Amino acid sequence: MVALVRGGRTLLRTAKGWFLEFRLIPVLLWSYTAVVLGTAIAVSDVGGFDTRWFVVALALGGLIQGWETHAINEIYDWRSGTDQVDGPRALSGGSRVRNFGLLDERGLWLIFAVSSVAIAALTAWVVVARAAWLAILILTGYALGIAYTVPPIATAYRPFAGEWLGGFPGVLLSGLGAYGIQAKSISLVAIVALSAHALVCMGMLMMHHYLDAPMDAAAVPPKRTTVVVVGFPNSKRYAGVMAATAALLYGILGVTTNPAFFLGFALTVPAVWIHLRTNPTNLESVTRNELRIIQLGIAAGLSTAVGLAPILWPMLPLAAFGYLAHLAVVSPPAELGRAWRRAPGRKKRSQKT
Question: Of all helices (H) and strands (E), which one includes residue 231?
């Protein structure tokens, strides 16, 4: 917005780099939906809704995942070489800001620094105005974002660790933080529901790594993701089991707590079939099905949230707007053909980054 108002090609390219680095579509599935779902469960439990703290929770989730974690990931994945190969990938392979010359490493460190300062300021406010123990959730999520890619831990470079010591707790903490900032407590229902959503996100992460596998294996150091280590057939089964477990958790909550969770169950069950039928070596199959998994995951979490707390209904059209806005800015590879256009709604998108 600043770039459009002030003009200037360089500023516009930098603004586009910041936008792409945020990686809005993954953020919508992971932290955005987790925060909305956690907030909805809190509203259902305590009967009140504080808009201000909901916005703070959204900001913290977006800053930690969208800029802090993604900027660090971009820096180290570029250094290892896995993102430098501009192969037949659409949704994976980083944000492409380095490939397109929109940002350099210094620009990525600036994103990390600015987001870190903003996270620190918001955390201090939460500690003073809400509850000091919430800082544990926020700072743990922040640390997990760094440990995901930065050596010597680099959980993303180790099989299973990327999912269970990076992605899963990151999503869970984002949603629990949103619950806690509203209710000043944590509930078992929130833990189970957000675990279900985190499992959906982990299934998407597995699919996200399919087309990266050759580049990840050749990186220095090698990025030994679960997909690289266990192979495509086992990865598909692994992702399918995570989606099935997520559906089961939603179903259990629908029976034991609130029928709204059946919405999450109904929208997660198809993900099992999609995971199992995906061709991990085919660009069109992976891209189209990853978008479907993302769409179903967002719909499952947000529809359940609105069922629990109807006051949150505006988050549905806002998510749709953000999803389409990201697709409008990102340029698909030429090899993708009709798959890119059909997945989001059969409309041709020819914008060039």
Answer: none
- Other CB atoms within a 10 A radius of the CB of residue 240 amount to 20
232-256 and 261-277 helices cross at what angle (nearest 10)? 170
Q: Is the dihedral of CA 5, 9, 11, 13 positive or negative?
A: positive
Q: Are 338 and 289 in contact (CB under 8 A)?
A: no
Segments of the chain assigned E as strands: none
pLDDT of residue 332: 66
Q: Which are the contacts of 98, defined by CB distance < 8 A and separation ≥ 6? A: 74, 78, 83, 84, 104, 105
Q: Is 274:293 a contact under the CB 8 Å cutoff?
A: yes
Q: What is the pLDDT of residue 344?
A: 44
pLDDT tens digits along 224-278:
999 999 999 999 999 999 999 999 999 999 999 999 999 999 999 999 999 999 9
Structure-block tokens of residue 213: 């596998």
Pairwise CA distance, residues 200 & 196, whole Å = 7
The secondary structure element, H or E, covering residue 280 is: none
Contact between 29 and 294 (Cβ < 8 Å): yes
Q: How far apart are CA 221 and CA 202, in angstroms?
A: 23
